[in-house]
């Protein structure tokens, strides 16, 4: 769904994947439920849309919608940093994330469709 700010219309979604330190398979049970709640809190606080989340035993998938003012790297830093801090302050067991992550964009138009649209615009202003 297209959203808007005062000066922009946008539809930006990011698929984010990251793993706990040492790729330990401990994101299950109560830990999984707690993290899902924390991810939802972070997105609400930062004005992001948490479209989908899946906490697997050894990695996390998030599908987050964001206004264009937020860089993908900033969103990842928020989610990883704040989630670890909140989790570790609230609960006795610890969560630590690796420094690495994957982020990919997703939207309503494919790369090929955008390239075709741009190519079709070249002769339109004459």
Figure out the total of helices: 3
Q: Helicity level, as a percent range?
A: 25-40%
What integer is the average pLDDT? 89
Taken in chain order, the helices and strands follow as EEEHEEHEH
How would you write the strand order of the largest sheet? Answer: 4-5-3-6
Largest sheet: 4 strands, antiparallel
In terms of DSSP E residues, the strand content is 15-25%
CA distance, first residue to last residue: 33 Å
What best-fitting shape do the alpha-carbon axes yield? elongated
Question: In angstroms, what is the radius of gyration?
Answer: 18 Å
Give the beta-strand count: 6
Low-confidence runs of at least 5 consecutive residues? none
Provide the structure class: alpha+beta
Domain Transposase IS200-like: 9-121
Pfam families: Y1_Tnp
InterPro entries: Transposase_17, Transposase_17_sf
Organism: Halorubrum yunnanense
What does this structure look like?
With 126 residues, the protein is α+β, with helices and mostly antiparallel strands. It has a 4-stranded antiparallel sheet with strand order 4-5-3-6, with helices on one face. A two-stranded antiparallel sheet has the order 1-2. The two termini are 33 Å apart. The protein contains 3 helices and 6 strands; from the N terminus they run E-E-E-H-E-E-H-E-H. It is elongated and about 60 Å long. The longest helix is centred in the middle third of the chain and has 19 residues, at 72-90. Helix content is 38%, strand content 22%. Helix 1 (29-46) crosses helix 2. A hairpin with a 4-residue loop joins strand 4 and strand 5.
């Amino acid at each position: 769904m297209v959203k808007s700010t005062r000066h922009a219309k946008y539809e930006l979604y990011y698929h984010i994947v990251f793993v706990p330190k040492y790729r330990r398979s401990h994101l299950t049970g109560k830990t999984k439920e707690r993290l899902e709640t924390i991810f939802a809190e972070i997105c609400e606080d930062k004005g992001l849309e948490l479209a989908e989340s899946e906490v697997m035993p050894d990695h996390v998938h998030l599908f987050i919608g964001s206004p264009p003012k937020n860089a993908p790297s900033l969103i990842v830093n928020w989610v990883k940093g704040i989630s670890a801090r909140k989790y570790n302050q609230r609960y006795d067991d610890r969560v630590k994330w690796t420094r690495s992550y994957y982020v990919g964009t997703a939207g309503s138009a494919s790369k090929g469709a955008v390239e075709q649209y741009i190519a079709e615009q070249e002769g339109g202003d004459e």
